[in-house]
Amino acid sequence: EAGDLAVLAARAAGDDLLAPPVRLDTVVPAPERVEADPGATFVLTGDTAIRVSAHPGAREVADHLAALLRPATGFPLPVADTLEAGPTGTLTLTLAATPAGPVPAPPADLGAEGYRLDVTATEVRVVADTATGLFYGVQTLRQLLPAAVESPTPVTTRWALPGGTILDRPRFPYRGAMLDVARHFFAVEDVLRVIDHLARYKLNHLHLHLTDDQGWRIAVDSWPKLADVGGASEVGGGPGGHYTKADYRRIVSHAAARHVTLVPEIDLPGHTNAALVAYPQLAPDKLAPPPYTGTEVGFSYVDPADEQTYDFIADVLGEVAALTPGPWLHIGGDEAFKVKGAVYTDFVERAQRIVADTGKAVVGWHQLAPAAHLDGRVLQWWGTDADDPTTADAVRRGARLILSPGNHAYLDMKYAEDTPIGHDWAGLIDVRRAYDWDPGTHVAGVPTTAVLGVEAPLWTESVTSLTDIEFMLFPRLPAIAELGWSPRAAHDWAGFRERLAGHGPRWSTAGITFHRAPEIPWP
Ligand code: TNX
């Protein structure tokens, strides 16, 4: 029989046409509700078609789905803007808000990012109120196919999806990661790949730490030497680099297509040596310091007593705001050890008003807490002692928090003593430590309602390549993603380590470097 021969040929090639489908309950981050229907299996074939609501955002998601599935399956997977079923199997993406067509009623409260996924023997259907919800349904669908779906080249296997229904939506609206492109500079392509990694795990914000002592990484037309001079250095003496405005726009649009919002950070008033190298008039002593290639912190600052400093801030934040479609501007504020007391809070209050003048909302490290509250202000908490009355007080005055506890969420911390790169000032962070905490109750006196979400920062003093980035992200980034997305009731270390284990082969197939953490039962 031709079918038997295909099975034999596939076995010989190491493929398995008889493998059972992935289990419906192995998705990371864990969905809100999963109801398996073990009797039903959908099998993707060369005749499968993709159908989508006639809506530009939904169409973009359908094209994204086709682009994800075509390389490994080798199937044509035509996409059509109609909800009518195809001749054989159909993958249907339905925007519930779209008027025409046979629209299955979604539950009333999928919200801005939720989706419903139904897999039957004849159809895979994703329904959502928004294109973002459809996008997340597609990321789930991808995880329900065999790991071979991550292959960049065609594989012969049985492209089975497990039957059942998933109803899903996030716990927190802000789920992010930070990449420090200042300590070491990373090419646009590397940043785009990091965005792809975020999207897989339903993270929706990328915070770019664009400026620090060792380098200034974004072109600013009104102060051109920031990038040209201040960008030409990095930790260890390498050449550094910077993003042109066109580069930055490429990052913005790649992110937007993956429903990721960019959060640019211009770190002020400290962490500014690179800016002072370029423009000594911003320095307190008006002397150009040498470029800095070490890893100390807290020594540099822009002159808070000079009006030129505020012109510089307004120009820079104005240009960065104009390039950034998202609602946030991050102004740093950490470790400005030489700007103290009222001088610091006055500086921050002026910087916050400059942000507000650009139409964006202020995000800053939690050192901003003592400054006056401004509408919409968000503090990013990176402490290690959850008893932080100053932050709790800022929350009482109206601030919301992004949780990045140094001893749980810092991706630059070593996994173990023998991890070849990374720091240990906040302790060692193995996968369990990254996973076992609750953003909703972590900081004393801060209610869950004040928590906007979570972010996992990657500082790059010792991270010099995309391989290093991936090694520090995987497998901890999915742990943080689950804290941001999944309902607290789903939190379960024993279950998480089993589910995560199945992702190892996906990463290997996709060419993603990861740490084979000993506490995960990798297959
Ligand atoms: C502290 S966390 C910093 C960074 C360093 C990091 C290294 C924070 C807001 N500031 O400047 O890169 O430690 O882990």
UniProtKB/TrEMBL annotation:
Pfam families: Glyco_hydro_20, Glyco_hydro_20b. The active site is at 335 (proton donor). InterPro entries: Beta_hexosaminidase_sua/sub (IPR025705), GH (IPR017853), Glyco_hydro_20_cat (IPR015883), Hex-like_dom2 (IPR029018), HEX_bac_N (IPR015882). Its EC number is 3.2.1.52. It is an enzyme of class 3 (hydrolase). The keyword Hydrolase applies. Gene3D superfamilies: Chitobiase/beta-hexosaminidase domain 2-like, Glycosidases. Coiled coil: none annotated. It catalyses: Hydrolysis of terminal non-reducing N-acetyl-D-hexosamine residues in N-acetyl-beta-D-hexosaminides. GO terms for cellular component: membrane. One of its GO terms (molecular function) is beta-N-acetylhexosaminidase activity. It comes from the Bacteria. Belongs to the glycosyl hydrolase 20 family. This is beta-N-acetylhexosaminidase. The gene is hex.
